[in-house]
């Protein structure tokens, strides 16, 4: 096949995922051919792909017109609402209305401008600017406390659509010009952490979290009058209207919705070799999921300590976020391993971080099932989605014991704001978090943290006066068992290349 024929094939079949076809070519022996292509050949491929995705940039222009017309059509000064719980916000009502109107109009004008510029190929900065405009449109209703539900709905949905149209559907701007072809299986690994089954479960969890957070955010912003709680009565209302929540300059629940939006969209970004070709994206995705995930979980589990109440849907979002941490960490480690290996070969880390690097090996993932098989073989695809995360019985039992600790105060009729309840709620939640995170085989050593937590649970009940002696004994016994369960590593089912030596 000639280069011209290959270019035509690329342009016609790579409309939605231009680099995916390149990965397919590399696995069929075309890697060397592509890497030897000169700039003129890559430019030709870029122009052909741009021609096939031209509708994307026209859509950006139309969305720009839509954004200009939105405040004129829906009138953000009618059917206005105030944030829940008498919350003070940093803008007056008149300023909130004005800010949302001008934000949408200016964003629309800029979107038309950069969308028009993007009609010509090889203008990546215009595409990226349109993407950042989409991010701003998603954030503006949070920052300006959108006074009407339609303003919030319009901004969040159109913003997400713009992000998808700029960097998801056509692929990364100009990536064809510099992407290195090669295998998508990390050297020494037994599976590909960027495969679609591995990403499918992250996308699904992010979407579920987005739905729950969006409901809670709608209450805080004032679009609904009541936040339903199936277990804790008015606990959700108390948490969402608490001093801790009011200390944030924006709605913390709506901010969580924005984070879940980015996580959901970033799950789609890149081909199955993105751990190698897009280290910057894997890094930012990892930051959203891991450190920010820990912060989100900590804020939720601290509710009984700081507010004296539980929020059922807040707990649900924490439950959704928690498994995302061990499910995402393997892709981050594969990316880090690749950067270390490229550095040893003399490559610039800065260049590799932003543009990826050449493959160390040409091995491709032949183990992962196709995501299209999910309808016929859901269990097979699900098992592939959790490769790298296993649940040894000792970690599973630690998780159950941690949940038990959180329920002990209620079972013994202990006041939720008492020191003993605080110890059990916080200690139990930490045991659960550590045990679940340690289910990631690459983070199995994380389990040792439960030794310290278990020790605190063993000793601290006896430093608290005026408490139930039976509860103290049960808490201490649970802490001792958690300590004993934290020494054994459990079976490791997969291989992780350079990282294997750190799994102890």
UniProtKB/TrEMBL annotation:
Instruction: Identify the stretch(es) annotated as Disordered.
Output: 1-42
Cellular component (GO) terms are: membrane
List the subcellular locations. Membrane
The residue ranges crossing the membrane are: 54-74, 99-119, 126-146, 152-171, 200-228, 248-268, 280-301, 307-329, 395-414, 426-443, 448-464, 470-487
Recorded topology in the membrane: Multi-pass membrane protein
**Which InterPro entries has this protein been placed in?**
VKOR (IPR012932), VKOR_sf (IPR038354)
What are the protein's UniProt keywords? Disulfide bond, Membrane, Oxidoreductase, Quinone, Redox-active center, Transmembrane, Transmembrane helix
Principal place of residence: membrane
Biased composition, class Basic and acidic residues, residue ranges: 31-42
Instruction: Tell me which domain of life the UniProt entry assigns to the organism this sequence originates from.
Output: Bacteria
One Pfam entry for this protein is VKOR
- CDD domains registered for this protein in UniProt: VKOR_2
Keyword Membrane applies: yes
Q: Which residues form the Vitamin K epoxide reductase domain?
A: 200-328
**GO: which molecular function terms?**
oxidoreductase activity; quinone binding
Per the similarity annotation, which family is this? Belongs to the VKOR family.
UniProt-recorded name of the protein: Vitamin K epoxide reductase domain-containing protein
